[in-house]
Write a structure and sequence with these properties.
It is built from 8 helices and 6 strands, in the order E-H-E-H-E-H-H-E-H-E-H-H-H-E. The chain is of the alpha/beta class and 246 residues long. The strands form 2 sheets. Strands 1-2-3 form a 3-stranded parallel beta sheet, with helices on one face. The longest helix is centred in the middle third of the chain and has 33 residues.
Length: 246
């Protein structure tokens, strides 16, 4: 039997990149998956890919921060002294505030379920090695927001453990996503090099010698949702090829 047979999983940012890969991996492990994204069409494409005779995919339109083009903005490189209050507020609205209130709402339902049948639940936050002090982070506000996710994960795990709720985080390193590919074109142009040269430079600093694919993050998420991780909580795991020490 698949390790997540008949479990219900909600994935935010499920329309592309790590969110899509995680949705598909959760479904492959047997779960029914609600795919949430600001882009309903993208969420629906992921849900359609999941849907089979044995698994269900449900697309949900959700804007976790109500900020247009937030992905492009948070990936933008900026010197610490150039960041504005507006930059800080926009980044933290999604990366910190959005994560907190998604976690809170999911936990509220899991507490109810635990009271009914003892099933509890699993919450898996996506942080970043930026929150671990990675010197190649895009900007200080982004790093601070991801550090907040790591701190939230630890505190939530302590307070929700009594409800049989596990809370963990994944800290991706350099990951090849559609968004990253678009940003790489701009960054390479700024440096006067090719995208291939830029990517080679990035990977040269990774001890294992390769960047993540979204599926690498998804595999960790599936593990943290599985029975094998039942006693793991309050942890933040780097998936970065050894780029940043824990």
């Amino acid at each position: 039997m698949p390790i997540l047979q008949d479990k219900v999983v909600l994935v935010t940012g499920a329309g592309a990149g790590i969110g899509r890969a995680t949705s598909l991996a959760m479904a492959e492990a047997g779960a029914n998956v609600a795919t949430a994204d600001i882009d309903l069409a993208a969420a629906q494409r992921t849900a359609d890919q999941i849907a089979t005779n044995t698994r269900r995919g449900l697309a949900i339109e959700v804007d976790c921060g109500d900020v247009a083009k937030i992905d492009a903005m948070v990936e933008h490189f900026a010197y610490i002294m150039d960041l504005t209050e507006a930059d800080w507020d926009r980044i933290h609205r999604v990366n910190a505030k959005g994560v907190f209130f998604c976690l809170q709402r999911a936990a509220r339902e899991m507490i109810r379920q635990n009271q009914a049948d003892g099933s509890g639940g699993r919450i898996i936050n996506i942080a970043s090695i930026a929150g671990r002090g990675y010197p190649g982070t895009s900007n200080a506000a982004y790093a601070a927001s991801k550090g907040a996710v790591i701190a939230l994960t630890k505190t939530a795990a302590q307070q929700l453990g009594r409800h049989n709720i596990n809370v963990n985080a994944i800290c991706p390193g350099v990951t090849r996503t559609e968004l990253g590919a678009r940003n790489a074109v701009e960054r390479a142009a700024e440096r006067g090099i090719t995208v291939a040269e830029l990517q080679a430079q990035q990977e040269a600093g990774i001890p294992i010698g390769r960047a993540n694919q979204p599926e690498d993050i998804a595999a960790m998420a599936v593990f943290l949702a599985s029975p094998g991780a039942r006693n793991i909580t309050g942890q933040a795991y780097n998936v970065d090829g050894g780029l940043v020490p824990s």
